[in-house]
Amino acid sequence: MQIDLRTVTIDPQRNTFDHLARRFGDKPASRYQEGSYDIQAAENLHYRPTWDPEQALYDTSITRIVLQDWYVLKDPRQYYYSTYTLARARQQETAEANFGFVESRGLGDAMAEELRDAALRVLVPLRHAAWGANQNNAFICGYGYGTAFTQPCMYHAMDNLGIAQYLSRLGLLLGDTEALDAAKQAWTEDRSWQPLRRYVEDSMALRDPFELFVAQNLVLDGLLYPLVYGRIVDDELSPRGASAVAMLTQFMSDWFDETRKWVDSVVKTAAAESDGNRAVLAEWIHDWRERAAAALLPIVELALGARADEAVAEQLTAFDARVAKTGVTL
């Protein structure tokens, strides 16, 4: 008996889900599209929230930004759960190797006491600011609209939680538990930290999720990370013998360079929608920019002394140039 085998190609009746076919046409969709587009709950919400009956449960009018389609705020990194966790896992391996290298070779103990104290004084209290950023991005995710916008905010929240943990580990490595206690006391009582603490706490009281996105992710992060991890750690401490601190904070520098592309894309897309959006964004950025610069100045002074004014001014110029590229005129 002879059996002949042959291959038969069966054309699928459809290539993707109906809601993606309506948006992109009937063609195979990417995993990012499947995990991001048109999955925002928008129907069959029978009751308004009891804590604010004037708004719907998922309400686009909660923000002053107006968009015809909130899914235009896509993530240029195209992160969905799988790609996000894989990317962060690789970065975590690098961070763990850096911590292991510094600890195994005693590089923290080899640093001059002056440099180690400066690193602890400037960096460890920032774990409280990172926790505030975690809370703020969780709020944006909860009250924002459109998964393409809210999904990366949740990833951003978890990243900030990781940054807070890395700063805690840095404090334990360079100064043991006393460093964490001192950092908490500085955050709550030291005069240098009270402007930033007030900025973080005031931002946590915002109700407009897009204004919170601007205040936290664009303005505060846009000034804090270049000043602290670029100007202080890379340009000031490392050349003087604190390269171990740069290794322990490499994740923060890499993370800021990566995430700013997404933040800029969101602001640029919202600004391009209408003159009204551009005016609102300019108002928010101008107001929070002034507050953030004033809040960060005394912290930069802890490391740079009299050169702090110059460093903050330089970063403000760079920040303004960054904002101009998004189409917002301050």
Automatic annotation (TrEMBL):
The keyword Nucleotide-binding does not apply. Keywords: Monooxygenase, Oxidoreductase. It comes from the Bacteria. The keyword Oxidoreductase applies. It holds the Pfam family Phenol_Hydrox. GO terms for molecular function: monooxygenase activity. InterPro entries: Ferritin-like_SF (IPR009078), MP_mOase_hydro (IPR012078), Phenol_Hydrox (IPR003430), RNR-like (IPR012348). This is Aromatic/alkene monooxygenase hydroxylase subunit beta. It comes from Thauera sedimentorum.
